[in-house]
Design goal:
Blueprint: E1 2-6, H1 10-21, E2 26-30, H2 33-42, E3 47-51, H3 59-68, E4 76-81, H4 86-94, E5 99-102, H5 107-147, E6 151-155, E7 161-164, H6 166-172, H7 176-179, H8 184-187, H9 195-206, E8 210-215, E9 222-230, E10 233-240, H10 242-288, H11 294-310
Helix pairs in contact: 10-11
Length: 311
C-alpha cells in the first residue's frame, strides 16, 4: 500500500516510516502540509498519516481540506497527536480523521491501528471499484438508450417520469425537460382507461414484465410495447408499428378477397356440372317425347335454351 507520512520531527518521522515499512508498505515522507499537497498532486495515496502540529498549515486543517475534495472519501486518514484531551480527540474525528494515535507512540498500538486501517482501506477500495464499475455501466446504458431507435421512458413508483430518451421525445411530441418529474397521467390524461394504463398498472402491481400492442387514443397509430418493473416503478420500450399493422390488414383483406374468389370459382364449377347433367337429361327427354306433344316439346326446348345460357 502507498502511504503518505506527514511529520515534521525527523526522528519521529524516520521511526514511523521504518515501522510502517516493516508491514510491507511503501512510505513517502514529507515534513509539511504544503509538501504533502505537492506529493498528492503527482501520486495517489489511499492512506495518510498526519501529525496534528505541523509548521504552517496544521495536520487537522489539511485533513479538513482533503475531506472537502471530490475524492475526499477515498482515503484513510490517521491523525497523530500529543494531545490527549477528549475534546481534542473528538475534534480530530470531526475534522474527518478515520482514527487517531497519541504520542508517545506505542508500537503494539500502532500495529493495531495499521491493521484496522488496512482492513478498512481494502473495503473502501472494493466499494470504490464497485462504484466506478456501476457508474461505467450506467454511462454505457445511458449511451445505449440515448442512441437506440426504440422509444424508452422510465417512471418511478408515483408514475413520475425519471428518464425519457430522444426517440420517446419524438414519439410523445414533447421534450424531456417538459416531461421529467411530471406524472404520466397528468401529462397524458388521454391514456386513462386505455390498454396502456391497464398494462402499466399490471406491471406495477405484479412486478412482472409484459408485452402488448395497442392503438393510441387518437386511433391513428399502433404501438408495440415492452414494459417491465424497474426501481420500484415501470420502464418501457415502445415503437410505432402502424405501417406493419396496415400491411397486415392489407394482407388479410387480400386473403379474404382471394378466398371469396376461390369459393365463387368452386361454386361456378359445381353449377356447371349440374347444368351439364340437366342439359343431357333435357336432350334425352326431347328425343323420347312424342312428336304430337307439341306443348311438351316447346317446354323442353325453352328449358334446354335456359340451361345453355346459364352455363
Amino acid at each position: 500500500m502507498n502511504i503518505l507520512l506527514v511529520e515534521d520531527q525527523d526522528d519521529s518521522r524516520k521511526t514511523l516510516s521504518r515501522l510502517i515499512a516493516m508491514r510491507g508498505h511503501k512510505v513517502t515522507q514529507v515534513a509539511t502540509a504544503e509538501e504533502a499537497e505537492r506529493a498528492m498532486a503527482t501520486e495517489t495515496f489511499p492512506f495518510l498519516i498526519l501529525d496534528w502540529m505541523l509548521p504552517g498549515k496544521s495536520g487537522i486543517d489539511l485533513c479538513r481540506e482533503l475531506r472537502a475534495r471530490q475524492d475526499g472519501d477515498e482515503m484513510f486518514i490517521l491523525l497523530v497527536t500529543g494531545k490527549t484531551d477528549r475534546a481534542d480527540l473528538e475534534m480530530a474525528l470531526e475534522a474527518g480523521g478515520n482514527d487517531y494515535l497519541t504520542k508517545p507512540i506505542d508500537l503494539s498500538l500502532l500495529n493495531v491501528r495499521l491493521a484496522v486501517a488496512e482492513r478498512q482501506i481494502r473495503d473502501l477500495t472494493e466499494r470504490n471499484q464497485a462504484r466506478v464499475a456501476l457508474q461505467q455501466s450506467a454511462r454505457t446504458l445511458t449511451d445505449i438508450l440515448e442512441n437506440t431507435t426504440d422509444s424508452f421512458f422510465a417512471l418511478d413508483y408515483a408514475w413520475r417520469f425519471t428518464y425519457v430518451n430522444p426517440e420517446a421525445e419524438s414519439s410523445f411530441g414533447r421534450s424531456r425537460k417538459e416531461l421529467l418529474g411530471g406524472e404520466l397521467w397528468q401529462k397524458f390524461p388521454e391514456l386513462r382507461g386505455t390498454t396502456f394504463e391497464k398494462n402499466y398498472r399490471r406491471v406495477m402491481a405484479e412486478q412482472a414484465p409484459i408485452e402488448f400492442e395497442a392503438c393510441d387514443p387518437s386511433g391513428t397509430k399502433w404501438f408495440e410495447v415492452h414494459a417491465y418493473p424497474s426501481g420500484g416503478g415501470v420502464s418501457a420500450f415502445f415503437r410505432d408499428v402502424t405501417e406493419r399493422k396496415r400491411a397486415e390488414d392489407d394482407r388479410l383483406t387480400k386473403g379474404k378477397i382471394e378466398s371469396l374468389g376461390t369459393l365463387a370459382g368452386g361454386i361456378a364449377h359445381d353449377l356447371n356440372n349440374i347444368l351439364t347433367v340437366i342439359s343431357g337429361n333435357i336432350g334425352l327427354a326431347q328425343l323420347e317425347a312424342p312428336v304430337e306433344e307439341k306443348n311438351l316439346l316447346g317446354c323442353l326446348a325453352k328449358a334446354s335454351q335456359a340451361a345453355q345460357e346459364a352455363a
